[in-house]
Design brief:
- Belongs to the folylpolyglutamate synthase family.
- GO terms for molecular function: ATP binding; dihydrofolate synthase activity; metal ion binding; tetrahydrofolylpolyglutamate synthase activity.
- Its EC number is 6.3.2.12, 6.3.2.17.
- This protein has 443 residues and is an alpha/beta fold.
- It has two domains: 288 residues, Mur-like, catalytic domain (UDP-N-acetylmuramoyl-L-alanine:D-glutamate ligase, 3-Layer(aba) Sandwich), CATH 3.40.1190; 141 residues, Alpha-Beta Complex (Protein-Tyrosine Phosphatase, Chain A).
- It is built from 16 helices and 17 strands.
- A hairpin with a 2-residue loop joins strand 10 and strand 11.
Length: 443
C-alpha cells in the first residue's frame, strides 16, 4: 500500500455514505483551505451520462495541440487514483500534461485531512478538494473538469463562473441517486449551466433537450445545440464537422466507434464557441489522431490477456455499464462485424446498481456467448452466476467463472472457425482490474 492509498482508506471512513449529494461539506472544506476553487484556471465543465471522458480527451488533445497547458479532472480511476488528476507541464516544457505525482498527491491529501479535522465528508468531496488545491497551485491555461454524478448538486459544481459548460449524451444511469425519470435526470445534469457561460449540448432526445433549454433560459446561459447549431458526419472515410462558421474536413478519430464521432464533434463545437483560446483547424486535425481514453473500445494487443487467448484473437476493452452504453457498444461491434466477421465473445462482470438485463439485451443475436466473471474489488459486484442468468434471459449462451483467468482459459479451450473477437465489458471497475491483470495500466 502506498502512502496515498493510506490516506484514501482513511477518507473512506469519514462519512457513512459513499455518495451523499450536497454542496455544504465541500464548501466548508474549501473555505478552510482558502478557496482554491476560486484560483483555478478557466474551467470547461463537462456533465452527462455517457461520453464525458472521451469528450474531455478530445478537448485536451486539441488544446494541447494549440500549445496550451491543460489540467484535467476525471473520475473514476481505473487502476490508480492518480489517473483522476492530470497536471499541465510547467511552462516551457514540451508535451502534454502528466498524472499527479505521489509526492504532490500526498501533500494535498495531508492539507485536506488537517483542514477537515475529522468532520463528516465523502470520499469524492475531500479528494475533489485536494484536486482543486493542486490545480490552484500549479499553473495552467485551462482546467477540464468532469462532473462526478449528476450536476446540480455534484461536488464539482462549486465553480460559479465557468468559461464553458458541455453536456454529453444523457440517458438512464445511477437510478438510486438520480431516479428513473429522464426529465429529472436532465434537470440535474443541466444544473451545471451558469449565467453568461455558453452551454454546448450533445444531440439529445426531445424530452431531454426541452428540459435543458428551460434550465438554460432560467439561468441565462446561451446554448449551442448539436443537430441544430452544429453537425458531424462521416463522408468518404473522413469526419466532416459543420456549423455557421463553416466546414471542417478531418481524419476519423483514433478512438474507435461511430459514437466517438459525435463526442469529437461536441468537443470541436465547444472550442469553437469560447472566446479565450485560439484553436485552429490544424489543431483539431491533430487532436483526432492524438486523443486517447483508456477502456473505451481500447484495443488490447499486448500483455497477459493476448497470451492466454487463441493466437490471432481481436481483443477489445470497453467500460460500458448502462443500457445506453451497451447499445452504443453493440452498434460499434456490429460495424466491426460488417467489416471483418469473427465470432463475438463477451467477457463481462457487472454491479448490482446497474441494469444487467437491459445492458445484455443489446448483444442478443450479435454475441456467440457470454463468459461472466467477478469484480474482485467492489462490494456492489453482482455474482457471475446472476449475470450469467441475466444473459440467458436475454437469449445469450452464458457460462459463469470464478475468475478472469478462468474465463480466458475457457475461451482458449474452444474451437472457433476463425480467431474470435473478444470484448471485455460491463463495468469500469472491471476494466480497471483487467488493465491491472494485463499489465497495461493508464499513464
Amino acid at each position: 500500500m502506498t502512502q496515498s492509498d493510506a490516506y484514501l482508506s482513511r477518507f473512506m471512513a469519514l462519512h457513512p455514505k459513499k455518495i451523499d449529494l450536497s454542496l455544504d461539506r465541500i464548501e466548508r472544506l474549501l473555505a478552510k483551505l482558502g478557496h482554491p476553487e476560486r484560483r483555478v484556471p478557466p474551467v470547461i465543465h463537462v456533465a452527462g451520462t455517457n461520453g464525458k471522458g472521451s469528450t474531455i480527451a478530445f478537448l485536451r488533445a486539441a488544446l494541447e495541440a494549440a500549445g496550451y497547458g491543460v489540467h484535467v479532472y476525471t473520475s473514476p480511476h481505473l487502476v490508480h487514483f492518480h489517473e483522476r488528476i492530470r497536471l499541465a507541464r510547467p511552462t516551457g516544457e514540451a508535451g502534454g500534461g502528466t498524472l499527479v505525482s505521489e509526492d504532490k498527491l500526498i501533500e494535498a491529501f495531508e492539507a485536506c485531512e488537517q483542514a477537515n479535522d475529522g468532520a463528516p465528508i465523502t470520499f469524492f468531496e475531500i479528494t475533489t478538494a485536494a484536486a482543486f488545491k493542486l490545480f490552484a497551485e500549479n499553473p495552467a491555461d485551462v482546467l477540464l473538469l468532469e462532473v462526478g454524478l449528476g450536476g446540480r448538486m455534484d461536488t464539482t459544481n462549486v465553480i460559479d463562473k465557468p468559461l464553458l459548460c458541455v453536456i454529453t449524451s444523457i440517458s438512464h444511469d445511477h437510478a438510486d441517486f438520480l431516479g428513473n425519470d429522464i426529465e429529472g435526470i436532465a434537470r440535474e445534469k443541466a444544473g451545471i449551466l451558469k449565467r453568461g457561460a455558453p452551454g454546448v449540448i450533445y444531440p439529445q432526445i426531445d424530452a431531454v433537450r426541452a428540459v435543458i433549454e428551460s434550465v438554460a433560459a432560467k439561468v441565462g446561459a446561451p446554448l449551442v445545440i448539436g443537430g441544430q447549431d452544429f453537425d458531424i458526419h462521416e463522408e468518404n472515410g473522413r469526419l466532416v464537422y459543420q456549423d455557421e462558421r463553416g466546414l471542417l474536413d478531418l481524419p476519423l478519430p483514433r478512438l474507435a466507434g461511430r459514437h466517438q464521432h459525435r463526442n469529437a464533434g461536441l468537443a470541436i463545437a465547444a472550442l469553437r464557441n469560447q472566446g479565450l483560446f485560439t484553436v485552429e483547424d490544424a489543431h483539431f486535425e491533430k487532436a483526432m489522431q492524438a486523443a486517447e481514453w483508456p477502456a473505451r473500445l481500447q484495443r488490447i494487443a499486448q500483455g497477459a490477456i493476448p497470451a492466454l487467448l487463441p493466437v490471432g484473437s481481436e481483443i477489445w476493452l470497453d467500460g460500458s455499464h448502462n443500457v445506453d452504453g451497451g447499445r452504443v457498444l453493440a452498434e460499434a461491434l456490429a460495424e466491426l462485424e460488417e467489416r471483418h466477421s469473427r465470432p463475438l465473445v463477451l467477457v463481462t462482470g457487472m454491479l448490482t446498481t446497474k441494469d444487467s438485463d437491459g445492458f445484455l439485451h443489446n448483444f442478443a443475436g450479435l454475441a456467440r456467448e457470454v463468459h461472466t466473471v467477478p469484480i474482485e474489488h467492489s462490494a456492489a459486484a453482482r455474482s457471475p452466476e446472476a449475470v450469467a442468468e441475466a444473459a440467458r434471459q436475454a437469449g445469450l449462451a452464458a457460462r459463469a467463472h470464478g475468475s478472469l483467468r478462468a474465463a480466458l482459459e475457457a475461451i482458449a479451450s474452444e474451437a472457433f472457425p476463425v480467431a474470435p473477437r473478444v470484448v471485455l465489458t460491463g463495468s469500469l471497475y472491471l476494466a480497471g482490474e483487467i488493465l491491472a491483470f494485463n499489465g497495461t495500466t493508464p499513464k
